[in-house]
Amino acid sequence: MEKTFKKRLSPLVIGDMEFSIPIVQGGMGIRVSTSSLAAAVINAGAVGTLSGLALGYDDPENATNYEKASRNGLIREIRKTKELTRGPVGINILVAASNYRDLVQTSCRENVDFIVSGAGLPLMLPELVENTRIKLIPIVSSGRATNLIITRWIRKYNRLPDAVIVEGPLAGGHLGYSLEDILSNKVSSLEKTTAEVISLVSDIGKRYNREIPVIPAGGIFDGKDIARFLKLGAKGVQIATRFVVTKECSVPDAFKQLYISAGEDDIEYIQSPVGMPGRVINTKFSASIKSGKNEKFTCNYRCLRACNPGTAKFCVAQALYNASQGLIDRSIIFAGSSVSRIKKMTTVNELLSELVEDTLVNL
């Protein structure tokens, strides 16, 4: 595949990393973007990303030492990925994670190639990777957030992002907007925000003689969508939802079948204990949460800084972990707005081939 399309689509270049297919597979947790998926994407010539969220959740030590269990789980997943590929290995780490510092520093020790960081502003990220060659890719939802991150990084660390992912309101999972603004259509479209960020980083890049690729994400489904953003000036796109139904994604078939059977009316929002809204596929559990019911749970740690176990209506980590174990009726199932368009299982190679061919037709 890589040789077939390398001369036809402009590669995505992030620092000294070059990807012949300008598609980033988004990091999805818990245990959705694992080594089998990320390595397959990397081997196909695109950007594979692990999710670093709660990878020690099934470790018996998790209940008494969450940070250590998560660290060990992260190490195992990075090393598994490196056994399966020689390409660049990246990790998505949530700023909202209470063990954010430890996860970043563990990733540094394991010599990952890049770190993607969102669900909050990664203002101190350069400090945590000092004296490494790791590429840094913040996730933003506005030009204002982009400017704040870049201004801080330049002033305090003399560092620029190596790329910027712009996540719009059609993405799955936790969203960087208020639920009220989403429901009242007060949120800018991904196209508008992407154009704003491209203009901003282009000016900064010229000042420092550096190109900072902008990568839009959220609701991008096919080659027509990809071509539209490439024409806008984006250097690549991020897609997550469509990779869930690939053979290489490690979630159970029950999880994948929910994606395939979901209709537009099955997509809804919940308010997460993280303090952000999330786009999910309706399940018995999410319906219970929306009805106002509190799902009792015991928490011996705070895996997310913004979550207060004493007042939270449910444990989002447990609900996401349940999904990875196929316990659908006790799960939160994150998904992007385009999930209702998915109709079948596929493989990573088949999906990327389809996306590349469709993009070329629409360029």
Helicity range: 25-40%
Main beta-sheet strand count, sense and barrel state: 6 strands, parallel
Radius of gyration: 19 Å
List SSEs in N-to-C order. Answer: HEEEHEHEHEHEHEEHHEHEHEEHHEH
* CATH fold label of the largest domain: TIM Barrel
Strand line-up of the largest beta sheet: 4-5-6-7-8-10
Instruction: Tell me what the CATH architecture of the largest domain is.
Output: Alpha-Beta Barrel
CATH superfamily of the largest domain: Aldolase class I
Beta-strand content estimate: 5-15%
Nearest-integer average pLDDT = 92
- Residue stretches low in confidence (pLDDT < 50, at least 5 long) are 1-7
Shape: globular
Count of structural domains: 2
For the terminal residues, how far apart are their CA atoms? 19 Å
Number of strands: 14
Output the number of helix runs. Answer: 13
Task: Describe the structure using short key phrases.
single chain, 363 residues, TIM Barrel, 6-stranded parallel β-sheet, 4-stranded antiparallel β-sheet, alpha/beta, 37% helix, 2 domains, globular, 13 helices, disordered N terminus
Textual characterization of the structure:
It is built from 13 helices and 14 strands. It is of the alpha/beta class and 363 residues long. The chain has 2 domains: 2-251 and 342-362, TIM Barrel (Alpha-Beta Barrel); 254-334, no CATH class. Strands 4-5-6-7-8-10 form a 6-stranded parallel sheet. Strands 9, 12, 13 and 14 form a 4-stranded antiparallel sheet that branches. A hairpin with a 5-residue loop joins strand 12 (267-271) and strand 13. Helix 2 (35-43) runs parallel beside helix 3 (66-84) and helix 3 (66-84) runs parallel beside helix 4 (100-109). It is globular and about 55 Å long. The relative contact order is 0.14. Mean pLDDT is 92; it is low at 1-7.
